[in-house]
Design goal:
The chain has 212 residues and is α/β, with parallel strands linked by helices. The chain is built from six helices and 15 strands. A hairpin with a 2-residue loop joins β7 and β8.
Length: 212
């Protein structure tokens, strides 16, 4: 593990503590509308906007490598660093649930991370998108309950830990059924209905109307 990897290992804790300090400062200013409003703004910025901005900066310096790489090698893994920046939201899904109940906000937030999200996308509160920069979703897409989208997979082969990173693409007009799981490289073509509990394996394509 490189020095940068070790430093970013502490980023989720730093992120949580910094957000907590800002929240405490807001509480201390309850008697002052201006001070309270300022610190609430700083708290929300620290919690929701600082991570995607740092993620973008990180990817500009260490571009995310798609395809297969080895996590056993001594070099720095750009995916690992980006994963640590997202980790607080993976550990506490309720932070994103709040965003999904406000129309349009979650889609806009994913665009900040680098995903391509279309118009009129409906996210149920329990959707989980692990790799926030690797989703491409068209217009008028509806996600069912407990849909899980993950654009990476880690495996072991001949003693080496290997990482596969590949984006997930969902075309316009799709319906993604409840408890569907889509893995790296999955492509769902436009106007496809995926039924309940669909398993999307690595690089699998769904064409036509899968629900019929």
């Amino acid at each position: 593990m490189t020095l940068l990897s070790r430093i970013l290992l502490f980023f989720p804790l730093f992120h949580a503590l910094l957000t907590g300090v800002c929240a405490v400062m807001a509480l201390r200013e309850l008697g002052s509308p201006v001070g309270f409003g300022f610190w609430i703004g700083v708290t929300l910025f620290t919690l929701y906007l600082l991570p995607p901005l740092l993620f973008r900066l990180h990817n500009a310096v260490y571009p995310l490598k798609r395809g297969i790489t080895s996590l056993s090698e001594k070099g720095y893994s750009s995916w690992w660093g980006g994963h640590q920046i997202q980790l607080l939201f993976i550990a506490f899904p309720a932070l994103e649930t709040f965003l999904r109940i406000i129309p349009g906000v979650y889609s806009a937030w994913l665009r900040l991370w680098g995903s391509k999200i279309g118009k009129r996308v409906y996210w149920t509160p329990s959707v989980q998108l692990v790799d926030r920069s690797l989703a491409e979703v068209g217009d008028n897409v509806t996600f069912g309950h407990e849909v899980d989208i993950c654009a990476h997979v880690v495996t072991r082969k001949k003693g080496s830990v290997r990482l596969l990173v590949s984006g997930v693409s969902i075309g316009s007009g799709c319906l993604i059924g409840a408890r569907t799981r889509l893995g790296p490289g999955v492509v769902v073509h436009p106007s496809v209905d995926l039924p309940y509990n669909t398993e999307g394996w690595i690089n699998q394509e769904f064409k036509g109307v899968a629900g019929e």
